[in-house]
Amino acid sequence: MENTGDNVHSTKNEHSRIQNGNRETTTLPDRDPSHNDVMLFGISHEIKQLAEAVRSKNESCVNKSSVEQMIRDLSEEHRRDFSSLSTKLDQLLSQFGDDGAEAAQPGSNFRRRNDQYSIQPTSSNNFRNPQLTNVQSVGISEMQKQLWAAVNKLDWPKFSGQGEYDHTEFIDWIDDCRDETSIPDEYIQVKLISILTGVASQWYKTMRKDHKDEKWDFWREEIRKQYGTSNWMRKKQESFEKDRFIPGETPVSSWVTRQYRRLRAFEPQLSQQSINFRLLGLMDREVEYATKNAMQSTTADMSTLINVLEDIVDKTRLGRKRFPPKSIEKTPSKVIEGREKAPVTSDIKCYSCQKTGHTSCNCPSKVNNVGEPAKNFRARAK
Q1: What is the model's pLDDT at position 196?
Q2: Residue 341: pLDDT above 70?
Q3: In a designed cystine with 262, which of 46, 209, 240, 274 is the match (CB 3.0 to 4.6 A)?
Q4: From residue 376, how far is each of 230, 351, 352, 358, 365 by CA, in Å?
Q5: Contacts of 272 (CB under 8 A, 6+ apart)
Q6: What's the CA gap between 283 and 178, in Å, rounded?
Q7: Chain segment 22-55, per-residue pLDDT in tens
């Protein structure tokens, strides 16, 4: 039995050696046993990188609903900005149309939110989102077109350079319009062709031949040099001194605004206190005294002066003539009816000598006429 067990064990050992020998003979001698592991590691690494790239791309993508919501937000912001700009344009037009109002300079909300919804690209180099940026730029461009079309419909002030002109008011209007609407200088140059009239139009056309590419800043200074002369300042000063304030006859707001602009024309460096003193000097003494007491400060602004003068004119009779002369109208002389006109002398006929031009009482041929020759008496006696 022991021999039998030993034989079985030896038989198994031989069988295992035979199998191992067969494996060694079938294995290629040049095959690296770690090659398969390297390939598997490379494939798994690539799969991991691909998974990370897909995950980052999915995280950076914006879904359709969020894009639509952002577009709606942009449209709403643009609508609000355009509504605000339209309101400010209406205010600008009404302010310049009113004779007694000053030109205000309100701030514009148009450029306040330009960068509010700027979309930055994601961290992935292979993914960008240019659609929202394009929507924003298209919206702003369309708004600018509508805004400039509204500016084109405005009643632009015209300047002729003749009479008692005021080129400073003309320049200030264009400056305010450009600041509020960001209108380009090329558009202003085209408008200058139509809003400059008379002598100013001829001057502009002559200057434009040598300065075609100049901007509005250049033309502003040239207009000031051409029309802001010493002769113009002297005329403004003479008009200022002659235009006195007469309560009840001169509109308060028109007079104060007109005189204020004249002062700024020939003495632009005056302080507010000096301007008030110059205006008070053109009033009646009673009105001047009452205005000084009501203003409470010599540095009050123009609106305060207008309100004080309007109260004095409406509630008192200071500065007015107590007994205004009544205008006596001359009535045409009436012709008395039934009275005959005096006869013409050439139609009168003398009954003594039968000649015209005199009567018989004044006839030179009568006997009792003094100085008549004697032969005439003898001739008539015969």
Answers
A1: 92
A2: no
A3: 240
A4: 89, 18, 14, 19, 8
A5: 299, 300, 301
A6: 38
A7: 444 444 444 454 555 666 666 777 777 777 776 7
